[in-house]
Amino acid sequence: MSEQRKTLTTRQGHPVRDNQSMRTVGERGPATLENYQFIEKITHFDRERIPERVVHARGTGAHGYFEAYGTIGGEPASKYSRARVLNETGVQTPVFVRFSTVIGGKESPETARDPRGFAIKFKTSEGNWDLVGNNLKVFFIRDAIKFPDMIHAFKPDPVTNQQEPWRFYDFICSHPEALNMVTFVKSPWGIPATYREMEGSGVNTYKLVNDQGVAHLVKFHFEPKQGVRNLTAKQASEIQAHDTSHATRDLYAAIERGEYPEWEFCVQVMADGEHPELDFDPLDDTKRWPEDRFPLLPVGRLVLNRNPDNVFAETEQSAFGTGVLVDGIDFSDDKMLQGRTLSYSDTQRYRVGPNYLQLPINAPQSKAVARTNQRDGQMTFYVDNGESEKHINYEPSILGGLQEAPQPEKDYHQPVQGHLGRYQTSKTAADYQQAGERYRTFEDWERDELVSNVGGDLKQCPEPIQLRMVWHLWHCDQDYGRRVADVAGIDLEKAKALPPLPGKPAPNQDRQGPTYTSGQSEQGGASAAKEPATSEEVAAAK
Protein backbone atom coordinates (compact mmCIF):
# COMPACT_ATOMS: atom_id res chain seq x y z
CA MET A 1 0.00 0.00 0.00
CA SER A 2 1.33 3.43 -0.96
CA GLU A 3 2.56 5.72 1.80
CA GLN A 4 0.88 8.66 0.08
CA ARG A 5 -2.84 8.05 0.53
CA LYS A 6 -5.28 9.73 -1.84
CA THR A 7 -7.99 12.08 -0.61
CA LEU A 8 -11.58 10.87 -0.33
CA THR A 9 -14.00 12.95 -2.43
CA THR A 10 -17.68 13.05 -3.31
CA ARG A 11 -18.76 11.84 -6.75
CA GLN A 12 -18.56 15.49 -7.78
CA GLY A 13 -14.85 15.51 -6.90
CA HIS A 14 -15.24 17.64 -3.78
CA PRO A 15 -12.80 16.72 -0.96
CA VAL A 16 -14.56 15.08 2.00
CA ARG A 17 -13.29 16.71 5.18
CA ASP A 18 -15.57 14.81 7.57
CA ASN A 19 -16.83 11.33 6.65
CA GLN A 20 -17.88 10.44 10.20
CA SER A 21 -20.94 12.60 10.88
CA MET A 22 -23.99 14.06 9.20
CA ARG A 23 -24.61 17.78 9.54
CA THR A 24 -26.89 18.42 12.50
CA VAL A 25 -28.08 21.34 14.58
CA GLY A 26 -25.74 20.90 17.52
CA GLU A 27 -24.43 17.61 18.88
CA ARG A 28 -27.90 16.16 19.55
CA GLY A 29 -29.98 18.17 17.12
CA PRO A 30 -31.87 17.03 14.04
CA ALA A 31 -30.27 16.43 10.67
CA THR A 32 -30.99 18.87 7.86
CA LEU A 33 -32.29 18.30 4.35
CA GLU A 34 -29.23 19.96 2.79
CA ASN A 35 -26.97 17.10 3.93
CA TYR A 36 -25.75 16.81 0.34
CA GLN A 37 -22.71 14.66 1.10
CA PHE A 38 -24.82 12.18 3.07
CA ILE A 39 -27.72 12.16 0.58
CA GLU A 40 -25.39 11.58 -2.37
CA LYS A 41 -23.65 8.76 -0.50
CA ILE A 42 -26.72 6.97 0.84
CA THR A 43 -28.86 7.22 -2.30
CA HIS A 44 -26.03 5.76 -4.39
CA PHE A 45 -25.66 2.98 -1.82
CA ASP A 46 -29.41 2.26 -2.05
CA ARG A 47 -28.95 1.54 -5.75
CA GLU A 48 -25.92 -0.76 -5.60
CA ARG A 49 -27.88 -3.95 -6.27
CA ILE A 50 -30.86 -4.88 -8.40
CA PRO A 51 -33.34 -6.38 -7.91
CA GLU A 52 -32.21 -8.12 -4.72
CA ARG A 53 -32.11 -6.12 -1.51
CA VAL A 54 -28.63 -4.71 -0.80
CA VAL A 55 -29.06 -5.86 2.82
CA HIS A 56 -31.64 -8.24 4.34
CA ALA A 57 -31.92 -10.16 1.06
CA ARG A 58 -32.36 -13.54 2.77
CA GLY A 59 -35.68 -13.62 4.56
CA THR A 60 -39.08 -15.11 5.23
CA GLY A 61 -42.34 -13.68 6.49
CA ALA A 62 -45.76 -14.35 7.96
CA HIS A 63 -49.08 -12.63 8.59
CA GLY A 64 -50.64 -12.10 11.98
CA TYR A 65 -52.10 -9.50 14.29
CA PHE A 66 -51.24 -7.12 17.10
CA GLU A 67 -53.55 -6.67 20.05
CA ALA A 68 -52.99 -3.81 22.50
CA TYR A 69 -53.48 -4.18 26.24
CA GLY A 70 -54.44 -0.49 26.46
CA THR A 71 -51.98 0.12 29.29
CA ILE A 72 -48.30 0.96 29.67
CA GLY A 73 -46.77 0.19 33.04
CA GLY A 74 -50.19 -0.15 34.68
CA GLU A 75 -51.36 3.26 33.42
CA PRO A 76 -53.59 4.04 30.43
CA ALA A 77 -51.52 3.97 27.24
CA SER A 78 -53.12 7.31 26.32
CA LYS A 79 -50.97 8.93 29.02
CA TYR A 80 -48.01 8.41 26.70
CA SER A 81 -49.43 8.25 23.18
CA ARG A 82 -52.54 9.18 21.24
CA ALA A 83 -51.84 6.42 18.69
CA ARG A 84 -55.02 4.36 18.45
CA VAL A 85 -53.06 1.18 17.68
CA LEU A 86 -51.57 1.36 21.19
CA ASN A 87 -54.75 2.46 22.96
CA GLU A 88 -57.64 0.46 21.57
CA THR A 89 -58.26 -2.84 23.35
CA GLY A 90 -60.13 -5.68 21.70
CA VAL A 91 -58.88 -4.66 18.24
CA GLN A 92 -56.68 -7.02 16.25
CA THR A 93 -54.52 -4.88 13.98
CA PRO A 94 -53.31 -6.88 10.93
CA VAL A 95 -49.52 -7.20 10.65
CA PHE A 96 -46.98 -8.66 8.28
CA VAL A 97 -43.57 -9.54 9.72
CA ARG A 98 -40.43 -10.23 7.69
CA PHE A 99 -37.45 -11.91 9.36
CA SER A 100 -34.07 -11.84 7.65
CA THR A 101 -30.31 -12.02 7.84
CA VAL A 102 -28.36 -8.88 6.92
CA ILE A 103 -25.22 -9.47 4.88
CA GLY A 104 -25.77 -12.64 2.84
CA GLY A 105 -27.54 -12.93 -0.52
CA LYS A 106 -31.02 -14.28 -1.13
CA GLU A 107 -29.93 -17.94 -1.07
CA SER A 108 -27.40 -17.66 1.77
CA PRO A 109 -27.75 -20.03 4.75
CA GLU A 110 -29.91 -19.08 7.71
CA THR A 111 -27.23 -20.37 10.07
CA ALA A 112 -25.04 -17.34 9.27
CA ARG A 113 -23.52 -15.41 12.16
CA ASP A 114 -25.36 -12.17 11.52
CA PRO A 115 -27.94 -9.88 13.12
CA ARG A 116 -31.49 -10.89 12.25
CA GLY A 117 -33.88 -8.36 10.77
CA PHE A 118 -37.25 -8.08 12.51
CA ALA A 119 -39.48 -5.80 10.40
CA ILE A 120 -43.17 -5.32 11.17
CA LYS A 121 -45.86 -3.62 9.11
CA PHE A 122 -48.85 -2.69 11.26
CA LYS A 123 -51.91 -2.00 9.08
CA THR A 124 -53.67 0.26 11.57
CA SER A 125 -57.00 2.05 11.19
CA GLU A 126 -55.00 5.28 10.84
CA GLY A 127 -52.67 3.98 8.13
CA ASN A 128 -49.52 1.89 8.10
CA TRP A 129 -46.89 1.90 10.81
CA ASP A 130 -43.58 0.21 10.00
CA LEU A 131 -41.18 -0.80 12.74
CA VAL A 132 -37.87 -1.90 11.23
CA GLY A 133 -35.32 -3.36 13.60
CA ASN A 134 -33.30 -6.41 14.56
CA ASN A 135 -33.01 -9.07 17.23
CA LEU A 136 -30.10 -7.62 19.23
CA LYS A 137 -31.50 -4.24 20.41
CA VAL A 138 -28.35 -2.33 19.40
CA PHE A 139 -26.44 -1.54 16.22
CA PHE A 140 -22.83 -1.20 15.03
CA ILE A 141 -22.81 2.55 14.28
CA ARG A 142 -24.62 5.65 15.51
CA ASP A 143 -24.38 7.94 12.50
CA ALA A 144 -26.10 6.98 9.24
CA ILE A 145 -23.33 8.46 7.09
CA LYS A 146 -21.21 5.42 8.07
CA PHE A 147 -23.76 2.81 6.91
CA PRO A 148 -22.39 2.31 3.37
CA ASP A 149 -18.84 1.98 4.77
CA MET A 150 -19.99 -0.56 7.35
CA ILE A 151 -21.84 -2.74 4.84
CA HIS A 152 -18.97 -2.55 2.35
CA ALA A 153 -16.58 -3.75 5.08
CA PHE A 154 -18.86 -6.62 6.06
CA LYS A 155 -19.76 -7.70 2.51
CA PRO A 156 -17.40 -9.84 0.39
CA ASP A 157 -14.09 -8.33 -0.71
CA PRO A 158 -14.63 -6.76 -4.18
CA VAL A 159 -11.52 -8.58 -5.44
CA THR A 160 -11.71 -12.02 -3.78
CA ASN A 161 -15.54 -12.07 -3.49
CA GLN A 162 -15.15 -13.55 0.02
CA GLN A 163 -16.02 -12.18 3.42
CA GLU A 164 -12.69 -11.48 5.07
CA PRO A 165 -12.33 -11.16 8.88
CA TRP A 166 -9.67 -8.48 8.48
CA ARG A 167 -12.15 -6.21 6.66
CA PHE A 168 -14.74 -6.59 9.44
CA TYR A 169 -12.28 -5.91 12.26
CA ASP A 170 -10.49 -3.17 10.35
CA PHE A 171 -13.76 -1.25 10.37
CA ILE A 172 -14.57 -2.12 13.99
CA CYS A 173 -11.12 -0.97 15.16
CA SER A 174 -11.98 2.63 14.31
CA HIS A 175 -15.50 2.47 15.76
CA PRO A 176 -15.38 1.45 19.43
CA GLU A 177 -19.12 2.16 19.69
CA ALA A 178 -19.51 -1.13 17.73
CA LEU A 179 -17.95 -3.22 20.52
CA ASN A 180 -21.31 -3.77 22.20
CA MET A 181 -22.83 -5.18 19.00
CA VAL A 182 -19.69 -7.22 18.19
CA THR A 183 -19.84 -8.83 21.64
CA PHE A 184 -23.40 -9.92 20.89
CA VAL A 185 -22.86 -11.02 17.28
CA LYS A 186 -19.73 -13.07 17.97
CA SER A 187 -21.44 -14.82 20.90
CA PRO A 188 -24.16 -17.46 20.40
CA TRP A 189 -26.64 -14.55 20.22
CA GLY A 190 -25.29 -14.01 16.69
CA ILE A 191 -26.94 -17.27 15.54
CA PRO A 192 -30.54 -17.55 16.76
CA ALA A 193 -31.81 -21.14 16.71
CA THR A 194 -35.05 -20.10 14.97
CA TYR A 195 -36.93 -16.92 14.16
CA ARG A 196 -39.58 -17.94 16.70
CA GLU A 197 -37.02 -18.05 19.50
CA MET A 198 -35.41 -14.65 19.20
CA GLU A 199 -36.09 -11.17 20.49
CA GLY A 200 -37.01 -8.22 18.31
CA SER A 201 -36.35 -4.53 18.75
CA GLY A 202 -36.93 -1.26 16.95
CA VAL A 203 -33.30 -0.42 17.95
CA ASN A 204 -33.70 3.31 17.29
CA THR A 205 -35.14 5.80 19.75
CA TYR A 206 -38.55 7.20 18.83
CA LYS A 207 -41.00 9.46 20.66
CA LEU A 208 -44.50 8.82 21.96
CA VAL A 209 -46.76 11.89 21.86
CA ASN A 210 -50.04 12.17 23.79
CA ASP A 211 -53.10 14.29 23.07
CA GLN A 212 -51.65 17.11 25.20
CA GLY A 213 -48.62 17.34 22.93
CA VAL A 214 -46.30 15.90 25.61
CA ALA A 215 -43.53 13.64 24.29
CA HIS A 216 -41.54 10.78 25.85
CA LEU A 217 -38.51 9.03 24.40
CA VAL A 218 -39.28 5.38 23.70
CA LYS A 219 -37.63 2.11 22.67
CA PHE A 220 -39.75 -0.71 21.23
CA HIS A 221 -39.02 -4.37 22.05
CA PHE A 222 -40.54 -7.81 21.39
CA GLU A 223 -39.99 -10.64 23.86
CA PRO A 224 -40.71 -14.16 22.51
CA LYS A 225 -43.10 -16.19 24.62
CA GLN A 226 -41.40 -19.28 23.16
CA GLY A 227 -38.19 -18.25 24.98
CA VAL A 228 -34.78 -17.36 23.52
CA ARG A 229 -32.54 -20.07 22.10
CA ASN A 230 -29.25 -19.69 20.23
CA LEU A 231 -26.75 -22.00 18.51
CA THR A 232 -23.07 -22.62 18.97
CA ALA A 233 -20.85 -22.43 15.88
CA LYS A 234 -20.57 -26.24 15.87
CA GLN A 235 -24.33 -26.73 16.00
CA ALA A 236 -24.87 -24.18 13.22
CA SER A 237 -22.34 -26.00 11.02
CA GLU A 238 -24.10 -29.32 11.61
CA ILE A 239 -27.45 -27.84 10.56
CA GLN A 240 -26.01 -25.98 7.56
CA ALA A 241 -24.46 -29.19 6.22
CA HIS A 242 -27.99 -30.52 5.64
CA ASP A 243 -30.32 -27.49 5.51
CA THR A 244 -29.68 -23.87 4.54
CA SER A 245 -33.33 -22.90 5.18
CA HIS A 246 -33.94 -24.38 8.62
CA ALA A 247 -35.39 -21.18 10.14
CA THR A 248 -37.81 -20.62 7.24
CA ARG A 249 -38.86 -24.26 7.44
CA ASP A 250 -39.37 -24.04 11.21
CA LEU A 251 -41.54 -20.91 11.05
CA TYR A 252 -43.68 -22.21 8.19
CA ALA A 253 -44.20 -25.61 9.82
CA ALA A 254 -45.08 -24.17 13.22
CA ILE A 255 -47.78 -21.93 11.74
CA GLU A 256 -49.16 -24.75 9.58
CA ARG A 257 -49.62 -27.02 12.59
CA GLY A 258 -51.29 -24.24 14.60
CA GLU A 259 -48.40 -23.47 16.97
CA TYR A 260 -48.61 -19.74 16.41
CA PRO A 261 -45.49 -17.88 17.62
CA GLU A 262 -46.20 -15.00 19.94
CA TRP A 263 -44.22 -12.06 21.30
CA GLU A 264 -45.03 -9.60 24.06
CA PHE A 265 -44.64 -6.07 22.73
CA CYS A 266 -42.91 -3.89 25.35
CA VAL A 267 -41.63 -0.34 25.56
CA GLN A 268 -39.00 1.47 27.56
CA VAL A 269 -39.83 5.12 28.19
CA MET A 270 -37.99 8.10 29.59
CA ALA A 271 -38.70 11.81 29.71
CA ASP A 272 -37.85 13.75 26.58
CA GLY A 273 -34.59 15.66 26.94
CA GLU A 274 -30.80 15.34 27.03
CA HIS A 275 -30.41 13.36 30.31
CA PRO A 276 -27.01 14.59 31.51
CA GLU A 277 -27.26 12.16 34.44
CA LEU A 278 -26.72 9.21 32.07
CA ASP A 279 -23.26 8.14 30.90
CA PHE A 280 -24.66 7.44 27.43
CA ASP A 281 -26.89 9.39 25.08
CA PRO A 282 -30.37 7.81 24.89
CA LEU A 283 -30.38 8.70 21.17
CA ASP A 284 -27.30 6.50 20.60
CA ASP A 285 -28.51 3.27 18.97
CA THR A 286 -25.29 1.42 19.89
CA LYS A 287 -26.40 1.48 23.54
CA ARG A 288 -29.10 -0.32 25.48
CA TRP A 289 -31.14 1.48 28.10
CA PRO A 290 -30.49 -0.35 31.39
CA GLU A 291 -33.60 -2.34 32.18
CA ASP A 292 -33.23 -1.88 35.93
CA ARG A 293 -33.67 1.88 35.39
CA PHE A 294 -35.97 1.78 32.37
CA PRO A 295 -37.98 -1.45 32.68
CA LEU A 296 -39.71 -3.24 29.83
CA LEU A 297 -43.37 -2.24 30.07
CA PRO A 298 -45.88 -4.55 28.31
CA VAL A 299 -48.04 -2.85 25.65
CA GLY A 300 -49.63 -5.74 23.75
CA ARG A 301 -49.17 -9.09 22.04
CA LEU A 302 -47.94 -9.92 18.53
CA VAL A 303 -49.15 -13.23 17.04
CA LEU A 304 -48.24 -14.79 13.67
CA ASN A 305 -50.97 -17.14 12.43
CA ARG A 306 -50.89 -17.29 8.61
CA ASN A 307 -48.23 -18.11 6.05
CA PRO A 308 -48.00 -16.13 2.78
CA ASP A 309 -49.92 -17.47 -0.22
CA ASN A 310 -47.05 -16.41 -2.49
CA VAL A 311 -43.53 -15.72 -1.22
CA PHE A 312 -42.56 -13.33 -4.00
CA ALA A 313 -45.77 -11.29 -4.02
CA GLU A 314 -45.83 -10.92 -0.25
CA THR A 315 -42.49 -11.57 1.44
CA GLU A 316 -40.15 -10.35 -1.29
CA GLN A 317 -42.24 -7.38 -2.36
CA SER A 318 -42.98 -6.30 1.19
CA ALA A 319 -41.35 -2.92 1.69
CA PHE A 320 -40.67 -1.24 5.01
CA GLY A 321 -39.51 2.25 6.01
CA THR A 322 -38.60 3.78 9.37
CA GLY A 323 -40.38 6.98 8.34
CA VAL A 324 -43.76 5.22 8.18
CA LEU A 325 -45.30 6.33 11.47
CA VAL A 326 -48.82 7.01 12.75
CA ASP A 327 -50.02 9.99 14.74
CA GLY A 328 -48.85 9.62 18.34
CA ILE A 329 -45.50 8.04 17.36
CA ASP A 330 -42.82 10.47 16.22
CA PHE A 331 -39.16 10.79 15.30
CA SER A 332 -36.39 11.51 17.74
CA ASP A 333 -33.08 13.09 16.68
CA ASP A 334 -31.38 9.66 16.66
CA LYS A 335 -28.93 10.13 13.75
CA MET A 336 -29.35 6.57 12.52
CA LEU A 337 -33.14 6.90 12.54
CA GLN A 338 -33.00 10.16 10.60
CA GLY A 339 -30.67 8.70 7.99
CA ARG A 340 -32.61 5.42 7.71
CA THR A 341 -35.84 7.35 7.19
CA LEU A 342 -34.51 8.74 3.92
CA SER A 343 -32.66 5.59 2.87
CA TYR A 344 -35.28 2.89 3.43
CA SER A 345 -38.13 4.41 1.45
CA ASP A 346 -35.74 5.63 -1.24
CA THR A 347 -34.48 2.05 -1.58
CA GLN A 348 -38.03 0.70 -1.95
CA ARG A 349 -38.88 3.21 -4.68
CA TYR A 350 -35.78 2.07 -6.54
CA ARG A 351 -36.00 -1.67 -5.87
CA VAL A 352 -39.74 -2.28 -6.21
CA GLY A 353 -40.80 0.91 -8.01
CA PRO A 354 -42.33 4.30 -7.21
CA ASN A 355 -45.78 2.72 -6.78
CA TYR A 356 -44.72 -0.03 -4.37
CA LEU A 357 -47.38 1.16 -1.94
CA GLN A 358 -50.11 0.17 -4.41
CA LEU A 359 -49.15 -3.51 -4.01
CA PRO A 360 -51.60 -5.34 -1.70
CA ILE A 361 -48.88 -6.42 0.74
CA ASN A 362 -47.83 -2.79 1.29
CA ALA A 363 -51.14 -0.94 0.87
CA PRO A 364 -52.93 0.25 4.02
CA GLN A 365 -56.07 -1.58 5.11
CA SER A 366 -59.44 -0.51 3.72
CA LYS A 367 -60.26 1.60 6.78
CA ALA A 368 -57.27 3.80 5.97
CA VAL A 369 -57.32 3.79 2.16
CA ALA A 370 -54.62 5.98 0.62
CA ARG A 371 -55.74 9.21 -1.04
CA THR A 372 -52.98 11.33 -2.53
CA ASN A 373 -52.31 13.73 -5.40
CA GLN A 374 -49.26 11.74 -6.48
CA ARG A 375 -49.57 10.49 -10.03
CA ASP A 376 -48.09 8.20 -12.62
CA GLY A 377 -44.68 6.54 -12.51
CA GLN A 378 -43.72 2.98 -13.31
CA MET A 379 -46.41 0.30 -12.66
CA THR A 380 -49.24 2.73 -11.80
CA PHE A 381 -52.52 0.85 -11.99
CA TYR A 382 -55.03 3.05 -10.16
CA VAL A 383 -55.54 6.67 -9.10
CA ASP A 384 -55.17 7.13 -5.37
CA ASN A 385 -57.90 9.66 -4.70
CA GLY A 386 -60.78 8.08 -6.61
CA GLU A 387 -63.21 8.93 -9.41
CA SER A 388 -64.81 12.08 -7.99
CA GLU A 389 -61.49 13.91 -7.55
CA LYS A 390 -59.60 12.59 -10.57
CA HIS A 391 -59.55 15.97 -12.37
CA ILE A 392 -58.07 17.86 -9.40
CA ASN A 393 -54.64 16.42 -8.59
CA TYR A 394 -53.46 19.43 -6.60
CA GLU A 395 -54.26 21.18 -3.34
CA PRO A 396 -55.81 23.53 -2.37
CA SER A 397 -58.73 23.93 -4.77
CA ILE A 398 -61.98 25.82 -4.24
CA LEU A 399 -63.72 23.36 -6.57
CA GLY A 400 -63.10 20.18 -4.62
CA GLY A 401 -60.39 17.59 -4.41
CA LEU A 402 -58.56 16.46 -1.31
CA GLN A 403 -58.08 18.65 1.74
CA GLU A 404 -55.80 18.64 4.76
CA ALA A 405 -56.79 16.73 7.89
CA PRO A 406 -57.73 18.76 10.98
CA GLN A 407 -54.87 19.74 13.25
CA PRO A 408 -54.83 18.25 16.78
CA GLU A 409 -55.85 20.63 19.54
CA LYS A 410 -52.41 20.36 21.10
CA ASP A 411 -49.37 19.16 19.20
CA TYR A 412 -45.76 18.44 20.02
CA HIS A 413 -43.29 21.15 19.04
CA GLN A 414 -39.61 20.43 19.62
CA PRO A 415 -37.42 23.45 20.35
CA VAL A 416 -34.23 23.37 18.26
CA GLN A 417 -31.19 25.55 18.84
CA GLY A 418 -27.56 25.03 17.95
CA HIS A 419 -24.79 25.59 15.45
CA LEU A 420 -25.02 23.64 12.21
CA GLY A 421 -22.00 21.37 11.79
CA ARG A 422 -20.67 17.80 11.92
CA TYR A 423 -20.58 16.40 15.42
CA GLN A 424 -19.71 13.17 17.17
CA THR A 425 -21.20 12.33 20.53
CA SER A 426 -19.19 13.41 23.55
CA LYS A 427 -20.64 10.56 25.66
CA THR A 428 -18.35 7.64 24.84
CA ALA A 429 -17.69 5.95 28.21
CA ALA A 430 -20.44 3.41 27.55
CA ASP A 431 -18.76 2.34 24.29
CA TYR A 432 -16.57 0.12 26.47
CA GLN A 433 -18.73 -0.11 29.57
CA GLN A 434 -21.77 -1.77 27.98
CA ALA A 435 -19.68 -4.27 26.00
CA GLY A 436 -17.91 -5.25 29.24
CA GLU A 437 -21.19 -5.59 31.08
CA ARG A 438 -22.51 -7.79 28.30
CA TYR A 439 -19.43 -10.03 28.52
CA ARG A 440 -19.91 -10.49 32.26
CA THR A 441 -23.66 -11.15 31.84
CA PHE A 442 -23.20 -14.09 29.48
CA GLU A 443 -23.33 -17.66 30.74
CA ASP A 444 -20.04 -19.60 30.77
CA TRP A 445 -20.79 -21.42 27.50
CA GLU A 446 -21.77 -18.16 25.77
CA ARG A 447 -18.56 -16.48 26.93
CA ASP A 448 -16.46 -19.44 25.78
CA GLU A 449 -18.07 -19.31 22.33
CA LEU A 450 -17.53 -15.54 22.09
CA VAL A 451 -13.83 -15.78 22.94
CA SER A 452 -13.32 -18.70 20.57
CA ASN A 453 -15.08 -16.93 17.69
CA VAL A 454 -13.33 -13.58 18.07
CA GLY A 455 -9.94 -15.19 18.71
CA GLY A 456 -10.33 -17.47 15.69
CA ASP A 457 -11.21 -14.47 13.50
CA LEU A 458 -8.26 -12.42 14.70
CA LYS A 459 -5.83 -15.20 13.82
CA GLN A 460 -6.65 -14.33 10.19
CA CYS A 461 -6.02 -10.59 10.58
CA PRO A 462 -2.85 -8.50 10.19
CA GLU A 463 -1.02 -7.65 13.41
CA PRO A 464 -2.11 -3.96 13.58
CA ILE A 465 -5.76 -5.04 13.59
CA GLN A 466 -5.05 -7.84 16.09
CA LEU A 467 -3.37 -5.50 18.54
CA ARG A 468 -5.97 -2.75 18.30
CA MET A 469 -8.88 -5.18 18.76
CA VAL A 470 -7.27 -6.72 21.85
CA TRP A 471 -6.65 -3.18 23.16
CA HIS A 472 -10.35 -2.42 22.72
CA LEU A 473 -11.53 -5.66 24.31
CA TRP A 474 -9.15 -5.32 27.26
CA HIS A 475 -10.66 -1.89 27.96
CA CYS A 476 -14.13 -3.47 27.89
CA ASP A 477 -13.11 -6.17 30.36
CA GLN A 478 -9.59 -7.28 31.18
CA ASP A 479 -10.53 -10.95 31.13
CA TYR A 480 -12.24 -10.48 27.75
CA GLY A 481 -9.09 -9.01 26.19
CA ARG A 482 -6.72 -11.47 27.84
CA ARG A 483 -8.66 -14.57 26.78
CA VAL A 484 -9.02 -13.41 23.16
CA ALA A 485 -5.31 -12.61 23.04
CA ASP A 486 -4.49 -16.10 24.34
CA VAL A 487 -6.69 -17.81 21.72
CA ALA A 488 -5.29 -15.72 18.85
CA GLY A 489 -1.67 -15.82 20.02
CA ILE A 490 -1.45 -12.03 20.39
CA ASP A 491 1.02 -10.27 22.67
CA LEU A 492 -1.28 -8.75 25.32
CA GLU A 493 1.35 -6.39 26.72
CA LYS A 494 2.15 -5.06 23.26
CA ALA A 495 -1.56 -4.46 22.66
CA LYS A 496 -2.05 -2.72 26.01
CA ALA A 497 0.86 -0.37 25.20
CA LEU A 498 -0.96 1.12 22.19
CA PRO A 499 -2.01 4.78 22.50
CA PRO A 500 -5.69 5.72 22.20
CA LEU A 501 -7.07 6.10 18.70
CA PRO A 502 -6.31 9.49 17.12
CA GLY A 503 -9.26 11.80 17.57
CA LYS A 504 -10.97 9.42 20.02
CA PRO A 505 -11.08 9.92 23.79
CA ALA A 506 -9.24 7.36 25.90
CA PRO A 507 -11.54 4.82 27.60
CA ASN A 508 -12.43 5.84 31.14
CA GLN A 509 -10.50 3.47 33.38
CA ASP A 510 -12.88 4.28 36.23
CA ARG A 511 -15.54 2.51 34.21
CA GLN A 512 -13.49 -0.67 33.94
CA GLY A 513 -15.59 -3.62 34.99
CA PRO A 514 -14.34 -6.32 37.34
CA THR A 515 -12.27 -9.14 35.93
CA TYR A 516 -14.50 -12.16 35.39
CA THR A 517 -13.62 -15.39 37.12
CA SER A 518 -15.27 -18.73 36.42
CA GLY A 519 -18.54 -19.22 38.24
CA GLN A 520 -19.36 -15.49 38.47
CA SER A 521 -21.85 -13.60 36.37
CA GLU A 522 -23.89 -10.43 36.64
CA GLN A 523 -27.62 -10.24 36.08
CA GLY A 524 -29.38 -7.81 33.78
CA GLY A 525 -28.95 -6.69 30.18
CA ALA A 526 -29.80 -9.49 27.79
CA SER A 527 -32.74 -11.75 28.44
CA ALA A 528 -31.77 -15.18 29.65
CA ALA A 529 -31.17 -17.59 26.80
CA LYS A 530 -31.92 -21.27 26.93
CA GLU A 531 -29.06 -23.70 27.07
CA PRO A 532 -27.63 -24.54 23.63
CA ALA A 533 -29.62 -27.00 21.59
CA THR A 534 -29.09 -30.68 22.30
CA SER A 535 -27.87 -33.07 19.61
CA GLU A 536 -31.47 -34.34 19.26
CA GLU A 537 -32.75 -30.79 18.71
CA VAL A 538 -30.03 -30.12 16.15
CA ALA A 539 -30.94 -33.32 14.33
CA ALA A 540 -34.61 -32.35 14.32
CA ALA A 541 -33.72 -29.03 12.67
CA LYS A 542 -31.89 -30.73 9.80
SSE topology:
Layout: E1 23-25, H1 36-46, E2 59-68, E3 71-72, E4 75-76, H2 84-87, E5 92-101, E6 116-124, E7 127-134, H3 147-154, H4 165-173, H5 179-185, E8 200-201, E9 206-209, E10 215-224, H6 233-240, H7 246-256, E11 262-271, E12 297-306, H8 311-316, E13 329-331, H9 335-351, E14 420-422, H10 429-441, H11 444-458, H12 463-476, H13 478-488, H14 492-496, H15 535-541
Antiparallel strand pairs: 1-14, 2-5, 2-12, 3-4, 5-6, 6-7, 8-10, 9-10, 9-13, 10-11, 11-12
Structure description:
This protein is α+β, with helices and mostly antiparallel strands and 542 residues long. Helix content is 27%, strand content 16%. It is built from 15 helices and 14 strands. The strands form three sheets. Strands 2, 5, 6, 7, 8, 9, 10, 11, 12 and 13 form a ten-stranded antiparallel sheet that branches. It has a two-stranded antiparallel sheet with strand order 1-14. About 3% of the residues have low confidence.
Give descriptors for this structure.
alpha+beta, 14 strands, 16% strand, 542 residues, two-stranded antiparallel sheet, 15 helices, Catalase HpII,  Chain A, domain 1
What share of the residues does DSSP label as strand, in percent?
15-25%
Residue runs with pLDDT of under 50 for 5 or more positions: 510-525
The structure class reads: alpha+beta
CATH architecture classification name of the domain at 23-135 and 196-362 = Beta Barrel
Give a nutshell description of this structure.
The protein is α+β, with helices and mostly antiparallel strands and 542 residues long. Helix content is 27%, strand content 16%. Among the domains are: 23-135 and 196-362, Catalase HpII,  Chain A, domain 1 (Beta Barrel); 369-401, no CATH class.
